[in-house]
Design goal:
The protein has five helices and three strands, in the order βααββααα. It is of the alpha+beta class. It is elongated and about 60 Å long.
Length: 90
Amino acid sequence: MESISVNRFRENLRKSVEKVVKDHAPLKVTRRNGEDFIVMSVVDWDREQETLYILQNNELMKQIASSIETHQAGKGYRPSPEEMDEITGI
């Protein structure tokens, strides 16, 4: 993760925020006499929150594990060619 001082961040606020949003990479802002903080886009924040929700939900994690086992065993659902065309929009 890239890091920048709070003074440099303040001087380059617009450029720093545009980079965070464009690159989808959080930016750590360091402060000399205080706690550091992270700047990230709302899209990335929402994605992280959704990931945390899934990881903390035991039922969803069990479903994912079961799905992985089924897939690895080659026993999962296989859509027909027509269904694949519909799914992929071809």
